[in-house]
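Backbone shapes recur. Consider a single case.
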Amino acid sequence: MSRIDNIFSGDKKALMPFIVAGYPTIESTEAAIIAMDEAGADIIEIGIPFSDPIADGPVIAAAMHDALKNGISPDHAIAVVSRLREQVSAGLIAMVSDSIVSRSGGSAFIDRLADAGFDGIIIPDIDDLDAEKLSAYCTSRELTFSMLVSPTTPLERVAWLASISTGFLYILARNGLTGEQSLPPDITSRIAEIRALTDLPLAVGFGISTRRHVESVTQSADAAIVGSALVRRMSNADDPSKAARDFVRELS
């Protein structure tokens, strides 16, 4: 059983914070991962900076821009995970653009993630044919492969996305960009529709920014993903890793 499967094997709901690798610095990224693990994060998503981030709102887009300006590359994110893997019990998921994956050799990039100690990958902009192929390869390397489901994704396609996903399915609470906003009132019914199609755990993101949001979402979903609110707190803090730890404690 993979680390991600084990995390979702019990009745406990999972908290999944998201950070940008190299923001504000690569040192603070490493410290924040360790701090969030100690504070109760179950799975940590590590966004690998990309010049044209997919669906990211102004907070995360700005963080990725600053990280790239400071010379951060996928190599830095992989090196951080390799250094701290034995210290961290939380699952570690790479969120990365297909452009980076394909440019870095596809399966060869997956090998690097697996060898460093990542537990899974999310590629939000991957096309269907490549997704099928890469999902199978991730399975061979014991990495989870999670596809995204939007509020308007037809149920027939949801079933297909679930069929090529492992670990969990990423459910977008709303359309548009990431950011701190209110949750849509129909999220519970949407989760119920998807639940009827798959046995995979369902993780909900986009707009979750408070403990109340986390509690609300996890009444029906298996995990809550928090990104922009965390990145914003880190950007405004004198000690980003402490800000990350304190916020995760508050949410959990």
